[in-house]
Amino acid sequence: MELLTPGSGLIIWQAIIFFPLVVLLYFLAWKPILASLKERETSITEALNTAEQARLEIATLKSDNEKLLKLAREERDKMLKDARDAVNRMKDEAAADAKKTADRIIEDARQAINIEKQAAMKDVRTQVAMFSLEVAEKLMKKNLSSDKAQKDLVDGYIKELKLN
Amino acid sequence: MSVFFDKIKVFSKLLLVVLFLGLSQASFAAESNDSTKAFNASEVILHHVLDDHIWHFFDGHYGTLYLPVIVYSAERGLESFSSHNFYDEHHNIVEYNGYKLDHNHIYLADSGKSVLDLSITKNVAMLFINATLMILILSAVARGYKKNAGKAPKGIQAFIEPIIVFVRDEVVKPNIGPKYEKYLPYLLTLFFFILFGNLLGLLPGAANLTGNIAVTAVLAIGTFVITNVSGNKGYWGHIFWTPGVPLPLRLVILPVEILGIITKPISLTIRLFVAITAGHIVLLSLICLAFVFGSAYVGIGSSLIVMFINLIELLVAGIQAYVFTLFSSLYIGMAVAEHAHDDHH
After folding, report:
1. Whole domain around residue A68: which residue ranges?
2. Which of A44, A156, B9, B73 has its CA at a distance of 20 to 30 angstroms from the CA of residue B286?
């Protein structure tokens, strides 16, 4: 059957056309097309890799930033705490100083008062003694002006002595 | 992807229009046939499917393209003349210059010896058209890459690129393995040759190029040669001394394997030839139904069926190009594969 018997002419033509066509298309089409496709694919892969790298870098930067921020915050806290401590300490010191001064002043005052008091007491005592003496003198002058009074006094003393 | 489907839609619409044009031509042809002799469907179908020295588009004075005849014989040497010389004014075949045309074969009239027929037949002309189209379209695609370097593909480049990438990534790469790049130009050319040939063959009036056994045989021989030339030690080892098989069995396997070398290209040849030719025969048979019954209603019915079969044929055009390329890469892949399992037997 004619359908199944390959025509020799067509075989030759097909071979003459097809195989050079492969070579021709290799240079005309496949080489540039496949090269461009490959180039595009590598560029896409590279772009993706770069993007991924950038993402990683940003992530590290971010974590670095966070670390720095955390450090800064810590430092700030420490400084604040130090300041607060210093203030407290100064306050305490000032209070202690003030107390000491006050104490000293009070002590001084107390001593002064004591001295004054003693001096006053001494004065009072002297004054009282003086007054007593004056009173006694005046009394004695008045009472012992008569002999009888003198005799009574002596008797009184003697009586007291006897009782002992 | 939607762009692709739009293009397919436009293409199928175009095809429909062309198909109806073709139908009207066929009816025209059949009418004139009816006036002279009874309608012979199988003759019409075979005439459309087979190769010819003339390219018949429609009946009438300008409907036939007389292609050049080139013949070579030891007696007469190389000669060329128009195939018009084989036909008289009533379209009957006559002898010319000592050559005789019989069932599309040319013989020497006196001795009856057949000559080497290098004529530009219908299929050879179709082959030229196919190759020219491939060069034009694919070089346009290549130019697109130069023009849109580093940018997204545009126009025809965007249409063809997915096909190229599909052939590379889904057909060639997985079947051949790491050495695929060397075979890619051949397999891509193969794929597009068959695809273009199949699609062009579906046009009304076009020749049945990829449904011709000579064409498919040459394509298969290409794959056969590449497979066996690039066959490595493992490939030949498997054929001649299959490892891991008992000695007596090896002697049985040897002829089977040698047969296998030959059957691979034969199966390639016949698969493509049959798939395309059968499709054409189905289409033409359905169209012929109208003329067999001589009824317009049958014509409408069969046209509707033809429409759907044509869509299926479009699918088959792609599938057959894919299958031929797939099997070619599979065979090449088998020949170049590194047989790592040789040691553990």
Report:
1. 14-163
2. B9
**CA–CA distance, B65 with B57 (Å, rounded to integer):** 8
Q: Which residues of B touch A19 (CB under 8 A)?
A: 222
Q: Say how far apart CA B223 and CA B211 lie, in whole Å.
A: 18
Nearest residue on chain B to A41, alpha-carbon basis: B150
Predicted model pTM: 0.73
Tell me how far apart the alpha carbons of residues A98 and A93 are, in angstroms, rounded to a whole number. 8
* Residue A6 domain flag: no
- Grade residue B36 by pLDDT with cuts at 50, 70 and 90: very low
State the residue for tokens 């003393």: A157
The answer to the question of residue A7 being in a domain is no
Task: Compute chain A's Rg from CA coordinates.
Answer: 64
Based on the structure, what is the number of domains in chain A? 1
Asked whether residue A77 is domain-assigned, the answer is yes
Could you tell me the two tokens for B91? 């379209």
- B117 vs A30: CB contact, 8 Å cut-off? no
User: Are residues A32 and B148 in contact, defined by beta-carbon separation less than 8 angstroms?
Assistant: no
Domain residue spans in chain B? Answer: 122-342
Q: What is the pLDDT of residues A31-69, one digit of tens each?
A: 999 999 998 899 999 999 999 999 999 999 999 999 999
B107: helix, strand or coil: strand
DSSP state of B114: B
Report how far residue B60's alpha carbon sits from residue B41's, in angstroms, rounded to the nearest whole number.
20
Tell me whether residue A3 is in a domain: no
